[in-house]
Amino acid sequence: MEEEDGVSKLAAVTACTAMALLYVAILYAPTLILRLPPPPSAKTFMIRRFVCAAVSSILSLLVSGLILSIRSSEASILFGVYGIRADHIWQAVVFPLSLTSLMYAGSLVLKILLLVDSRRENANRGGEGISLQNFLASIVSVASNVLAWRSYVVCCTEQAPLTEELVFRACMIPLLLCGGFKPYTVIRLCPIFFSLAHLNHLMEFYSKKNYSWIKTSLAVGLQLGYTVIFGSYASFLLIRTGHLLAPLVAHAFCNFMGLPVLFSRRNGIVSVAFLAGMVGFLWLLFPMTRPDLYNDRLNNCKCWHGYCSWD
To answer: Please, are residues 16 and 196 in contact by the beta-carbon 8 Å criterion?
Structure first.
């Protein structure tokens, strides 16, 4: 791959800001620009947003590729710039997913306790409990639900694993690293753009909170705080591993689990599990994201992977 001189910091930040604004603005394009009638159903509404987010992602990939002056026609190099790779797949799924699940140790323990209580109650009533058939039926129901695909796989205005990881990690991190920003700076900077895409909920929260700016500010502040923390973690995963699957599976898992459960009045073991999980998470954070676990070679690195300057 032929490379031009490095991208300037101003160009990198400007491009990232534009991509963040485009990601949100294009969601409103069908009604505001194309003047399409309002969608007749929630399913149609979400499908329309899927298409808009896909267009935004493709445009962001093209723009970042042009700025980075990617001239190679080899697919592995072209997609590798964005962390889209066909190698080390199981490592990019298992290790980040296991690491992320440690933060939810309290939540998982609570779910197990609730499941045990549910089975006990069903048994006392003479019910069948949770059968394999019912479990498979619930999976099929989720898989066929367009809202579930919105939250856990494709896109939405709140949290969107696939399209958000493509735009806010795969496109922005290479630009910022090639712009001369250090990896730790990118980890702090990228979530700022990530948060910009969530400010469109301001008026929605305002109406839900009975038009109280204090309650709205608290709700938006909580959401932005969460997106900054997760955005930093997701950026860390991509820079360390060079594999887009790493933040993608972590994002989908976090969407599925919601906010971690810190304690439960019913059982103190939930708090113990949460604390133990956080200790394990911090202890394994760097060992489980070692670049050599996800890459065959670390020498002669490219600037968008950041391996050369990480240590």
So the answer is: no
> What tokens appear for 245 in the block?
């699957």
Q: Is 121 a catalytic residue?
A: no
Q: Note the pLDDT of residue 155.
A: 47
Q: Which residues contact 62 (CB under 8 A, 6 or more apart)?
A: none
pTM over 0.90: no
What does the alpha-carbon distance between residue 238 and residue 184 come to, in Å, rounded to a whole number? 12
118's tokens: 């549910």
Amino acid 176: pLDDT: 92
**223: three-class secondary structure by DSSP:** helix
Q: What is the pLDDT of residue 47?
A: 78
Report yes or no: 173 and 186 within 8 Å, Cβ to Cβ. yes
Catalytic residue among 88, 164, 243, 305: 164
Mean pLDDT, the chain cut into blocks of 10 residues (311 residues total): 64 92 82 74 76 88 86 71 90 96 92 79 61 52 50 48 90 91 91 75 56 67 80 94 94 87 82 94 95 77 55 47
Are 65 and 153 contacting, i.e. CB atoms less than 8 angstroms apart?
Answer: no
Rounded-to-integer distance, Cα 254 and Cα 138, Å = 20
198 is catalytic: yes
Contact 242, 291 (CB under 8 A): yes
Which pLDDT belongs to residue 266? 72
Choice among 198, 201, 251, 305 that is catalytic: 198
Q: What is the identity of the amino acid at 208?
A: K
- Are 274 and 105 spatial neighbours (Cβ–Cβ below 8 Å)? yes
Burial of 39 (0-12, 13-18, 19+ CB in 10 A): middle
